[in-house]
Amino acid sequence: MRRAMAEAEVGDDVFGDDPTVNALQERIAGLLGFESALFVSSGTQSNLSALLTHCGRGDEYIAGQMAHMYRWEGGGAAVLGGIQPQPLPHRADGTLDPLDIAAAVKPDDPHFARTRLLCLENTIGGRAVSTDYLKTATRIARDHGLATHLDGARLFNAAVAAGGDPYEQARLIAGHFDSVSVCFSKGLGAPVGSALLGSREFVAEARRWRKVLGGGMRQAGVLAAAALHALDHHVTRLADDHEHAALFAEGLKDVEGLTMEPSGTNMVFARSAPGLATDEVRDRLARRGLLCAGYPGQLRFVFHLDVTRADTERAVRIVRETLAETATD
Ligand SMILES: *Cc1c(COP(=O)(O)O)cnc(C)c1O
């Protein structure tokens, strides 16, 4: 990837003439079945550009309570767009109840914000959602006159989990939506970068918003080259991450103090027994070289291309040793 970056042909993408950025945009648009794509600096910038393109001041979007686009993006749509979120509770599998979606759409009445957009996420909390759900939820949105957007930061994890050709699966998932955001960073291993996909008209408008957001990048081909490398070499291998995550969860299923909740992709959640302070456990794990995220009552372990099978086995040992030590303290 570093070599591909070093050797990338570049131009000025603010003027649309960086050949590597253009190649990436064409590649991902073709791959996922959209007319057009826009290379952006991050998933957050991608989702925010999408919100600003779909919605205007006084409009609202529907998203899950734990959706990245609602909870983890600094309220950007409200801060910069005058757009309000309408968060909905998740079911146990991370999906939204279609009845809740329908009920959340406001009548056309000056008392209410205008409901414009449904935003779904896949994978959500590491879980790949079913095709049936995507079909039902997006159909309900359309029946109510809403546009649909997929936060597919981890779309390729969902595609690999579906089995079969991951590129084909990614295209099938993306095909349910008017716009899609996908990350080349994180699991795909590029240092930065996401793509926002949609119709030609949608992407032209999103390009304006990207500029407003400070996301116009110039010789960005060095970054697009990393993303192209990731698309070519790091998609199929996501299956290794999923396997490592499953191995890790399996290796710890009988450990006292933690209940392992594998997601089916590259994340494992571990719910802690009452009285076990997850922040203390997380700090102890970190001192032994195992980094994870800690939330109240829960730890999150994420597997990616820099974690080998041997690392996974070592991680199991580290968790066992750390919990034994915490219990006897
Ligand atoms: C990480 C992530 C984002 C944001 O991506 P950044 O590049 O960190 O801004 C958006 N959505 C989901 C589901 C994510 O996991």
Task: Provide structural commentary.
With 329 residues, the chain is of the alpha/beta class. The protein contains 14 helices and eleven strands. The chain has two domains: 2-233, Type I PLP-dependent aspartate aminotransferase-like (Major domain) (Aspartate Aminotransferase, domain 2, 3-Layer(aba) Sandwich); 238-328, Alpha-Beta Complex (Aspartate Aminotransferase, domain 1), CATH 3.90.1150. 45% of the residues lie in helices and 18% in strands. The strands form two sheets. A seven-stranded mixed sheet has the order 1-7-6-5-4-2-3, with helices on both faces. The protein has a four-stranded antiparallel sheet with strand order 8-9-11-10, with helices on one face. α2 (19-32) packs parallel to α11 (221-233), α3 (43-54) packs across α10 (200-212) and α8 (155-161) packs across α9. Residues 1-270 form the Aromatic amino acid beta-eliminating lyase/threonine aldolase domain. Its cofactor is pyridoxal 5'-phosphate.
Q: What is the assigned CATH homologous superfamily of the largest domain?
A: Type I PLP-dependent aspartate aminotransferase-like (Major domain)
Q: Care to count the β-strands?
A: 11
Number of helices: 14
Spans of at least 5 consecutive residues whose pLDDT stays below 50 are none
| Heterogens | pyridoxal-5'-phosphate
Number of discrete domains: 2
- Helix % is 40-55%
N-to-C span: 45 Å
CATH fold annotation of the largest domain: Aspartate Aminotransferase, domain 2
The SSE order reads HHEHEHHEHEHEHHEEHHHEEHEEH
Beta-strand fraction estimate:
15-25%
Alpha-beta content class? alpha/beta
Main sheet strand line-up: 1-7-6-5-4-2-3
Q: What is Rg?
A: 21 Å
